[in-house]
Amino acid sequence: MPSLHLNGIAKRFTGHTALHDLSLTVRDGEIFTLLGPSGCGKSTTLWSIAGLHRPDSGSIAFGDRVVYDHGRVNTPPEHRNCGVVFQSYAIWPHMSVYDNVGYPLKLRRADKAQRDRRIREVLELVELGRHAKRYPHELSGGQQQRVALARALAHPPDMLLLDEPFSNLDAKLRDRSRQWLKTLQEQVGVTTVFVTHDQDEALSVSDRIAVMDQGRIRQIGTPAEVYDHPSDLFVADFVGTVNILPATVVEADGTHALIRLDGIGAPLRVPHTDKRIGPVHIAIRPENIDVIRHTAGDEPEGTLVARIESQAYLGDHYRYGIRIGATPVTVTTTRRIDADSLTFSLPAHDVRVFHEEPSTNEENRHAPVH
Fold first, then answer.
1. How do residues 26-40 score in pLDDT, each as one tens digit?
2. C-alpha to C-alpha distances, 16 to 38, 41, 139, 196, 214, nearest whole angstrom
3. Domains of the chain, earliest start first
């Protein structure tokens, strides 16, 4: 399967720029996810790859085959050989599962024996071999989604493009579908671009993720890189749950810094690759805050104590709400706290520090330091 290359893609609609000079490479055979809030440009990017939107500049190539080069090449959607699964599935209600899946082959004038063989292959692949004669109204939402995926794979595509395909499913079925898609994609090996606004979905199925905001890419990385080492404050805040606190760098040598937080007496010494002094924001995940057991009046040195303001039991963990200074903070732990207060520490290696940059084009920019 070919790799995918986008270079300098821009797309403008009336009074609005949806994509700003966007460039990325999707490796051969990987699941690459475009993740971001509504309106960030992820679907516009997907439709530009498919040929359903025509960019205003830039180029798109499937391996060595250029399918779009502004002013020179614009391969029609039907000749790009993309398998597309829409959010609404878009399967035809008057056709059986067999006919829905076989429709792309019929359009390409494949003979009946070839169609029958390929339809059986992809239906077995998506575990719907026994449902070939059924109609969409006789299927569950998850089964309809698999019919749409089988149809996208019927004529082996160069690219598989998925636009929030699980958004109409309930939570448990979404989780099962993610696992199933990951296994299926590994079997088929097709280069896949997956669009979602669901962080859990992106983290669980992706080989790499591009986090998008207002038509720009904020960060590209593996799920672990994006979650554990966000490139800026937007990524830290959007991907997963995070506590963001105002702070001040009082000393910095380019390797470490002393960070002062409101509500904490002694400064924290944290890894820090910037020498600037002054206001910053720190970010720390709720699960990375160390909850410390102790007996009353025997708090270990260097730890902090805060009153518990809220608590919730969530099955496999507990969630507690506290404050550090005036800032609400969420702490998660597998331990039940049978007290009115919580003793904790902020591990230096899990604290991310961000200097706020001057805004550009009315967008806030943050420079990361780790």
1. 999 999 999 999 999
2. 14, 11, 40, 22, 10
3. 4-233 (3.40.50.300), 242-369 (no CATH)
